[in-house]
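Archive maintenance. Older records in this collection stored only the sequence; we are now back-filling the structure field for every entry so that each record is complete. The fields below show one back-filled record exactly as it appears after the update. Entries are processed alphabetically, and Small ribosomal subunit protein mS26 is next in the queue.

ARCHIVE ENTRY
Title: Small ribosomal subunit protein mS26
Organism field: Tropilaelaps mercedesae
Length field: 211
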Amino acid sequence: MLRAAVSPVLRQLHPEAGFLPSVTQIRNKKVRLRKQLWMPRAPSKLFKMHPIRSVPQEEIAQYKFLYDRHHMEMLSIKAFYAAEQRRIADDKSEFSQVSRKEEEELQSLLALNEEENRQIAALREQRHQEDFLRRMDIKMKHAEEIREKAKLEEKAALQELQKEMENLHFITHDTLDEAVKRAYHQPTTYNFAISPSGEKICEKTGEYEDK
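Back-filled structure field:
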C-alpha cells in the first residue's frame, strides 16, 4: 500500500515544498506459524503412507564396516588415553620421590655449606687477629727503633758538643782555677791595628800578619 505524505522537516526547511508529495511504503506481511505439538494430525495426512526406501546390501556392509572401524578407533583412543594417564600418574609419583630426595640432598648440602662458612669465618677472624698483632708488633718495634735512634743521635750530639767544648777550652767549674792561673801567667791581648796598606799589626809582637 502506498501513501502520499509531506515530511515535516522538509516543510520547515522549505515552506514551498509543502505541495510536493512524498511516498511512504507500508507492507502488511503474514508470518506463517507452525502447528503446535499438541494439535492433532491433519486429516489430509491421516492415511498418507511414506514409501519404504530399500538400502542395498553393499551400502549396509559399508556402513557396518565404517561403524566398526570408528568404534575400534574410539576404543583405541580411550585405551591410549588411560595408559597415558597412568604413565603421567606414575611419573608424578616417581618425580615426587625424586624431588623429595633432591630436596633432602639440597638441605644436607646447605647445612654443610653453612658449617664450612662458619669454619671459614672463624679462620678469617683468627687470621685478622694474627695480622693485627703482627702489625702492632712491627709498629712497636719501629717506634722502639726510632727511640733508640733518637737516643743515639742525642748521645752523639752530646759527645760532639763535649768535643767542641774541649776544643774551645771551655771553662768548667772543675777547670776554673787552672784557667785563672793560665790566664795570669800567659796574658793575651786581642788589640790590633790596620795599616794604610791594609796589613794587620798586633799589639803583642808588633809583627805584620797577612790579611
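Update note: The longest strand covers residues 2-5. Residues 1-6, 205-211 have pLDDT under 50 and may be disordered.
Entry marked complete.
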